[in-house]
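Two folds, back to back.
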Amino acid sequence: MNAPAHTAYLHAQQFAALTPGPRLIVTGAVHGNETCGTQAIRRTLDDIQSGRLQLERGLLTLLPVTNPYAYAKKERQGDRNLNRNLRPGNPSGDYEDRVADVLCPWLDAHEVLLDLHSFHTGGQAFAMLGPRDNAGQLEPFSHERQEERLVAHLGARCVVEGWMQAYERGVQRRRRERPDAPAELLDAAYGVGTAEYMRSRGGYGVTLECGQHEDPHAPEVAYRAIRQTLALLGMARIPLQPPPPEFTVYHLEDVVDMDHAGDTLVKPWASFDPVAQGEPIGRRHDGTLVRAERDGFVVFPNPRALPGNEWFYFAVRSDRTLNIE
């Protein structure tokens, strides 16, 4: 690890109102090349420090840069992907594991998370939603209604669910086909990122994908989301805007890894581009085509993925509706 000295700490700013209320943490730059959240959080900090925004209830923690090493590199990750296998006490000593040792206790101390991201290729903003209430083994949860209300007010009309189920399938495939892969890629907890960790600790959290990395509108999407979250939770006197009249909800069915640096996508896919059963999505370096197993949609296509990491996701329409009351 060759992280520069100025990446040796996390810098969060916290505001505690004198009236009790929700405990909210907002994070940006979990991936170092995703800076819309950083810009929006810094704008919110300026609003608070100038008096334009006043916290009236609860506790607000703002973390503009969650992964300083990746941010300094202007790359997705430092040593590894911080938003996978997130937990304290990982023994590897990777930079992101050291970040997790600080970040996870901060998440533990809050009830609600808003995690702000962007994505590689074109497409509209979308929100990542957790599971329905359940007592299962994979991702037990009891805040479905609260999380759906939060998603409904963030401004995105597209919603994606099924993250952990897709990763469970991906890990099982790696164990069958690539048993010599790095241990973290074979870990059943590999899909756990900030929101999943938050749910595992009794809270709830939403990941908002605000647009393509360079989209000039993405910071505004992130800024509006912060303000609407504060409004929804009753933490500041900000008008709560009505949610969109309709949402399109997608369910992630699978995650497909890039196996080799020579793997290529057959076209410049954007998230939610439709694909028909049998249609080629990518081509392996040996010429083998990767085809859609059924009618569905491409999500998170990443033509610059690292070998062994996520190349694209496959989704179908979900029958889930959001509780927006």
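---
second:
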Amino acid sequence: MNAQELKQISDWLIDGARSAASPPQMVAEFCESLVGAGLPLWRVGLFVRTLHPDLLGINFIWRPGAEVVAGSADHSFADSPEFKNSPLAIVFGEAREVRYRLDDPETKRFPFFDDMRAEGVTDYIALPLLTTAGYTHASSWSTKHGNGFSDEQLNALRSLMPPLTRLVEITNLRRTAALLLDTYVGNRAGERILAGQIRRGHADTMEAAIWLSDLRGFTALSDRLPSETVVDILNQYFDCQVHSIRTHGGEVLKFMGDGLLAVFPVTQRDGSVQQVCSRALEAARESRASVDAMHYQVGEALEHFRFGVALHVGKVLYGNIGGGNRLDFTCIGPAVNLAARLEKIAGRLHRTIVASEGFAGICAGGWSDLGEFPIAGFSKAERVYGLADEVPAS
């Protein structure tokens, strides 16, 4: 590689790899430009740690003439023999490079190199990517060239690590921000925040199906079980709902103890109000089945659980609410208040799923009229509906 080619590649990285529309495309263009400059690459890996409750990191594997393969690893991978007995464990643990010719007997201690030798790999180097925040990502480079990598080629790779690291760091920070916002405030709210909707009082009115649920008997449960057990039960209980809500187009806005507030927005991309309400009802039916099947072993006793969910549809104010520099992206309005009152009525009636007259009228069929009830804070009584196929719990 001559100095001019190396500078062009470095400048491309420093400029943000603008010709690449995605991380896999960036990895592909980067590796292909190195091959074009004379670097005999066979396999390149980029390993990026993430700040995510479920994922330890993501990786991208490039080989000549093939699509870049993107993958991920959960947090348990850090304790697996596959990782602990790999050269990358040294890179991540000690933030230093690892270089081996594959005819070196020392490589026998790494099972990964057995596969590489079978492919005809002759030389391998793993280089750390040291971020400004003190984190370490990693890259690995291998060749099948008979003489392996030359010193000039290795120095060229080393010289490209700082600009590659800055690009990876910036891209990863942007991805981490999106993932954390999605995790903690929801996908749609996260999109709005990243788009700049961050000022207090900045809110929009939207029509939505509203979901408000809670776990029956949670106060008594909390009083008689250890707090760690209660947290584990809550996580399992919310798992019974969140997947169904998101699968059917809803967004979880808030967990309030054992309570859950979600909305199913009625927008052009989500379909008609009837379609949205039907999906919300289907999510409620799925969640009912999941909670019914949920059980938890506490000592010799087997705990079973019940929950209630109220469904309503109406206008909500959706945006930034809070005090000082502590904001919450949530929804408020009379429609949300009514859903909260209906959920309490569901508990009194020993029902799992109840709906307002507005929701039941839109999502017609399969409802029983449970009567008219006064609603605290509302001038008119509200007619409440329950599913006809549901037998009230004793």
